[in-house]
Amino acid sequence: xxxxxxxxxxxxxxxxxxxxxxxxxNDNLMWWNTxxxxxxxxxxxxxxxxxxxxGQSISFNSGSFASQIGEKIHAKAExxxxxxxxxxxxxxxxxxxxxxxxxxxxGTVSKTQYKKVGTYSLRIxxxxxxxxxxxxxxxLNVQEPLPSTNHNPVAQFTFxxxxxxxxxxxxxxxxxxxxxxDTLTYSWDFTDGSKSTSQNPTHTFxxxxxxxxxxxxxxxxxxxxxxxxxxxVEKVNVPNTCPANVDFTFSPNTPIVGEVVTFTATAxxxxxxxLTYSWNLDSDAAPETTGKTVSAQFSESKTYTxxxxxxxxxxxxxxxxxxxxxxxxLEVVSISCFNPVVVDHPQTCSVEVKANSLPVSFATAKLYxxxxxxxxxxxxxxxGKCQVKFTESSxxxxxxxxxxxKQNYLPDFSKSVVSTYVVLDEKYDILNLETYASFxxxxxxNPDHTFYRGEPIYIKFQVxxxxxxxxxxxxxxxxxxxxxSSAGGKASLxxxxxxxxxxxxxxxxxxxxxxxxxxSQAFAFAFNFVDxxxxxxxxxxxxxxxxPQIFGMPTLIKxxxxxxxxxxxxxxxxxxxxxxxxxxxxxEILGVTGTFIFxxxxxxxxxxx
Length: 609
Hints:
This protein is mainly beta. The strands form 11 sheets. Strands 28, 31, 32, 34, 36, 38, 40, 41, 44 and 45 form a 10-stranded mixed sheet that branches. The chain has a 6-stranded mixed sheet with strand order 4-5-12-11-8-9, with no helix packed on it.
């Protein structure tokens, strides 16, 4: 008797042929690319049921089958509908070779084969020496997919000016929305016989009166919503020629988020009237600024509609343009790590992030070994830098790289900047490490752990040989001391004369910049490059910002009824007066007597910082 087996790919079975072919069933014979099936545990009539949506495909895998070596097997898959109509799916010829089993018999049933919704039987038949064997089958149910839910769009619009006059442009701006994200179509009815299908049309009313202007929006599946607003159009009593040749340019033409964009208007007037220029820079209904030339910065990456309104006092002329604001590209420009460091002690790497050659604050920098192992992350300071601190667990040469990302910026995942350093074995203990505010405090052993930028810092410590427990006197041992700040700053200290068995270091001034602020550490190192060993230790400290000062300000300032008050001569700050790329200071006015137009002061001062 000859036996025919069906097996998984992970199982290898060898068989010997005997007379009278017989099928031995395996309920795990076939599996499918869908979770919707039911096993029918009936051994010799093992079957399954699968359900798919109309239009989907389903694939099958018969597993392997084995018989006598050298025997030829013809496998075929057929689809049978309720009427008995047979559609061929696929077929293949196999020859049992070394091992006594075949490759998998696979195939896919597609829409072109089952044609329509209904119930089908997908069966696999094997022909061996002229005899047919039903290897396995599945009941395939093809159903119509469930309909998806669609929501009505919401129609909304604004118009400007809010009190238009006859024969003057009125700009209508749709602010409609659709929660399903469908693309909307627009139908405007101005109730004066005019209609429009533009998203944001401009219309001129030729007669005065009240007009019920309606906007109907339609989504991709035909659902609609309508909103109506009344537009009151007034007569123009005095004949006037509207401003002509109204236009504007902007530079740069392809701005990025946060970049200063300059808008310049041009216009003419036949009566030589004084013209005013109003700008709507953020696609809403209200102008934000005035002037023939204005500047703006955009905080999001999107397309803005910028509208310029030019008026001669009686007539407005409006022109709108789209400006595409792109995301700035972040760039990891440098990685600075201690080199060398000591095994089982911290390594700190300073990551610097810029965009358009300027520091980027509040960006997330992530540090990795060059093999992709994640080491930690930090958030950049106002200087565009931050420190990642982690412990090295093995000696040898190491390479690290970094990525950076921030909302409304294009991330830098290139890992193009690499820092290389060496991790030494540990041989020395750094003992009695402390920080001090002055040399006298250091001599009196009166430590301090809180400092202001611009102040000096002193460090002292001792070095002990871990093998001999003796103070280090080896001339090959080199010591270093560093100040490291979480804001990204690193500064080396200068070695001073010290008593026997002690090491003294000094930093004349903690740098007056934003790289040194907040949580910080003083590191001490001892290195022996002859035997590639070292010692390392650190102590925590805090660096504070110097408060700004007001000086020389008179007790009484008399100004005209409308004035621009410049307070810069009365302000001073150590960091922001001296640091490269420092931010300006802001003022808070606590009280004003008499009539005072505060808006002008606010235009001069940046009150947000």
